Amino acid sequence: MRFSPWRDSVSILRRGFERAPDSVHALTNLGLELVERERFDEGSPCWRAPPSQCPLYSNVHVSSGYAYAKAGRLAEARAATRRPCRCGPTTPSWPWSWAACSRNWASTTDAETRFREALRRDPELANAWLFLGTLLQHQGRVAEAEPFL
Question: Are residues 21 and 79 part of one domain?
């Protein structure tokens, strides 16, 4: 038996990308895992490419912005996360994207407002519930965060 693809998260995600090289999800997830491990040079191509492949898919822009911010490249982080916000309020996921961007910029007040707006528009938006709950929890508003988590 051969278990090497399953030895850690990077190997699993790398194998996923090898099996689906055209998947922006596979590439973005691999890049984000490398960023979490602070392997920025290795992960950089993974989180720089997807936004150009899917210019209107806000999640890859938010992920790219997060990766740039984590790498300490704040100007590029702001530019990356502002792109999906330009799609405007008619885009269904726009409030969530804007909130996630705001969170990346440490603008918690704006992020909270936008997460709440996203939930008002779509109460089934799981990411908005989770992100709002964790945002409130990080602010020490644990009792207020509990229903969202």
Answer: yes
Helix (H) or strand (E) holding 99: helix 94-104
* Residue 53 to residue 42: CA distance in whole angstroms: 19
Q: Which residues 6+ apart lie within 8 Å of 121 measured at CB?
A: 92, 95
Q: Which domain holds residue 32?
A: 1-86
For the segment 93-131, what is each residue's pLDDT rounded down to a tens digit?
Answer: 555 555 665 665 556 677 788 788 888 888 887 777 887
Chain segment 52-79, per-residue pLDDT in tens: 776 666 677 777 777 887 788 878 877 7
> What sign does the CA torsion over 94, 96, 76, 40 have?
negative
What is the amino acid identity at position 15? R
Rounded Cα–Cα distance for residues 93 and 72 (Å): 27
Q: Please indicate, yes or no, whether residues 63 and 45 belong to a single structural domain of this protein.
A: yes
pTM summary value: 0.57
Instruction: Identify whether residues 109 and 127 lie together within a single domain.
Output: yes
- Give yes or no: residues 56 and 97 share one domain: no
